[in-house]
Design brief:
Layout lengths: L3 H4 L12 E2 L5 E3 L6 E3 L11 E2 H5 L8 E8 L6 E3 L6 E3 L6 E3 L3 E6 L3 E2 L6 H13 L6 H9 L4 E34 L2 E29 L6 H7 L8 E2 L9 E2 L6 H24 L3 E30 L2 E8 L5 E3 L5 H24 L1
Parallel strand pairs: 10-15, 11-14
Antiparallel strand pairs: 1-2, 2-3, 4-15, 5-6, 5-9, 7-8, 10-13, 11-12, 11-15, 15-16, 16-17
Length: 361
């Protein structure tokens, strides 16, 4: 089994330092001497899907598996690959001190990677701009975040699922019509039009092929954080190459493949429900039964880029994430009691001034 921490190292042919992937550029760059190196051409330009049933049965080819050494955070349970020569560091997800190299992690190899487009400086500006717009955030935290350590570039694991579906359904189509009705309002009789619905039984069949239903394969971050980073342009996925991870970290997936598919089925079923309602037609729809046959299920393990910062400030942890492709930002919304009190006092003074002015008039 290969050690990914070694695979992610690419020594500079000029000074011998480890080269890093250049976000937004299709090259490696040496952070010490500035030397650049072109990315090696992959063996394939396509990303091959894997059979879901084979994976669940544990019968994937050995070539599709790998073993890496990871560190598991004792606080948030994140499993992140670290450099082999690092013995202690902070968890990038919650800023908890952790000891690295907690053991091997055997998992399905990534098939695709969405390379970082934004560099750390651009991501940091997006985060500080976002935080600066939160007037109620404590000034101390704003200053601490601006002057703190650099953001960590993390490749976060996701599953994507493809499937063919065929659904038979029964239900009713509702057609609205108008009838007149006499009502009494303010002691006077009035004629109003009332909407009623005629229901007609209906049965039918819909089919839909799903491609790249995306499911987060990690539980390290609160779901609202990762949902807010969407959408991702998966058309920019590249076949996995360890060069993309040079200078970055990768989180190991903690959501099992079959559990992820259960979440994907919720997304699929919601879309199938919309398809059924469209197929029923009319003004209103009722669905009584829906039986879906799912076939040709395939999947792939992909890595998506996230810039991340976790700050310990006055005993509290504040986390911020930036989409490494689009720059979308999400973070906790800390509040300053002093700023809120000042805002309340100002609001009361303004209200009192307005009231006094109206009384004088």
């Amino acid at each position: 089994m290969s050690d990914t921490s070694q695979e992610h190292r690419f020594p500079c042919d000029n000074c011998g330092s480890d080269m890093e992937f250049d976000p937004g550029g299709d090259q490696l760059v040496c952070p010490h001497c500035g030397n650049t190196s072109a990315m090696s051409e992959g063996s394939s330009s396509t990303i091959r899907e894997l059979d879901f049933d084979d994976a669940v049965r544990g019968s994937l080819a050995e070539a599709e598996m790998e073993e890496t050494r990871v560190s598991q955070c004792p606080n948030c349970a994140a499993q992140v690959e670290f450099d082999a020569n690092i013995h202690a560091t902070e968890c990038p997800f919650c800023a908890t001190p952790v000891v690295t190299d907690t053991g091997p992690n055997r998992h399905i190899k990534p098939k695709g990677v969405l390379p970082f487009v934004l560099d750390e400086r651009t991501a940091r500006k997006a985060m500080t701009d976002w935080l600066g717009k939160r007037w109620f955030a404590p000034n101390g935290l704003q200053a601490y975040a601006k002057k703190g350590r650099k953001l960590d570039g993390i490749y976060v694991p996701y599953w994507t699922y493809d499937a063919d579906t065929k659904t038979t359904y029964t239900g009713e189509r509702g057609v609205d019509y108008q009838v007149s009705k006499t009502v009494v309002r303010d002691g006077k009789k009035q004629t109003v039009m009332v909407t009623k619905t005629r229901w007609h039984p209906i049965a039918g069949r819909v089919a839909r092929d799903f491609d790249d239903v995306l499911v987060l394969a990690s539980t390290s971050l609160p779901r609202p954080y990762t949902d807010a980073l969407a959408p991702w342009d998966l058309s920019q996925l590249s076949p996995y190459s360890p060069e993309y991870l040079a200078g970055f970290r990768a989180e190991a997936y903690t959501v099992a493949l079959d559990d992820g598919f259960g979440e994907a089925r919720v997304t699929m079923d919601n879309r199938i429900t919309r398809d059924i309602k469209f197929d029923i037609g009319g003004d209103r729809q009722r669905i009584h039964t829906a039986k879906t046959k799912v076939s040709n299920v395939t999947f792939k393990h992909v890595l998506l880029p996230v810039w991340m910062a976790a700050y310990k400030y006055r005993g509290e942890t504040y986390r911020f994430v930036v989409n490494g492709q689009t720059g979308a930002v999400r973070g906790q919304r800390p509040y300053s009691a002093m700023k809120i009190a000042i805002a309340v006092v100002i609001g009361l003074l303004v209200a009192a001034a307005i009231g006094y002015g109206m009384a004088q008039q």
